[in-house]
Design goal:
The complex is a heterodimer of chains A (223) and B (201). With 223 residues, chain A is of the alpha+beta class. Chain A contains eight helices and four strands; from the N terminus they run ααααααβαββαβ. The relative contact order of chain A is 0.10. Chain B has two domains: 14-104, Rna Polymerase Sigma Factor, Chain: A (Orthogonal Bundle); 107-186, Winged helix-like DNA-binding domain superfamily/Winged helix DNA-binding domain (Arc Repressor Mutant, subunit A, Orthogonal Bundle), CATH 1.10.10.10.
Chain lengths: 223, 201
Amino acid sequence: MSTDQSDYKNEHQKVWELLPAIVNGTADGTQARRVEHHLGECSDCRAELARERKLREALRLPARHAPDVELGFQRLSRRLDQADGLASTVRSPRRGFPRFAGMALVSIGLVELVALAALLIAGARLVVPAGNDSPAVYRTLSHTPEQAVARVRLRLMFDSARPLREFQATLLAHDLVVVDGPSETGVWSLGFGPGPHDAEAVVRALRQVPGVTFAEPVGLPGP
Amino acid sequence: MLSSFLRRPSAEGALPEAECLRRIATGDRRALESLYRGYQPRLARFLSRFTRQEGLIEEVINDTFWVVWQKASQYRGEARVSTWIMGIAYRLAMKAFRDQDDLTRHDSDEHLVDSWSHDPETGRELRDWIGKGLGLLPVDQQMTVELVYGQGHTVEEAAAIMECPVGTAKSRLFHARVRLRNLLPDLAGESTSTGSEGGFQ
């Protein structure tokens, strides 16, 4: 193969690679000039360009199975409205709760939280007067009303500095409902909507969500 | 002549999509609606290539805009807005299609030839015929073709959307083009056989 033939073949291959950019209009001026020059002497590339323009034309025709845009946006709006409705039913995180306290709780980890709960219980017993027969009422991180305990599947802390709608969206995305909370330390007790759910998988996903500073399943071994 | 090869004015130049996202980040529903109306047809076109279920298409579109609503503040402008939104839609679509096992398939090349013989000049027939041709490609190649030709993305943008190396996207496009050339040899119609227009339309 002569040098000229080899050069022509190389140029042909490079121009062939540029044709999609020509067809969809993303080629720059240098590329366009290069293609234009080559097309003047290459019938194969001219045919390919014509074929790919037809392809683009066909791919840009309206979809046959397109849903209605009006109905679609109405449904999205209702979904957003429902999220807003949830905001009105969920108590806002306590104002004034220092963020560093929440971060500190995360940093000490679940084991330390359990130890902290035990200390709180022990401390409460110390201040209960001797001889008082009425059962003491303790409120710890794991406390929820009895009827709700069965529904609590996980605990969550969410950065209170972030918009509330992010918190709502996180709940909706994982079909979570608020059973109780926030506790004094900002911990939400959450359950699931109807249907089967994998609490551990959800917890793993929650830990990837910006704003989630703590997520642990309830009644299941930790990771 | 040269001007016909250069980048076409994009819709993004006319519509301040980045500004739209900024407003969405502040909770502006009108901005969300504007973006939704602008993108719904092209997302529907993209998704309908892979499923015939209108309900599923709408679900993916609405999930996409749900994420846009939640994450608009995280858009940093590193990519075009269309690339960012298409990336979200792509990931949601892949998950939805996997869950539904609903990636559209067509049967054989013979079916393709039969379809083409009806009336190749009408837009609907052309769309269906090409749709059947694309259906014979692996899904990742179909996606690449749709992103580049149907959605107007560069190969680099297509790679970003599909979360794969640029070389992989280039390879997918290369193999798809070669296969389509063999599957749809008459795509350019009579104009190709005469070679008279030479692509300078």
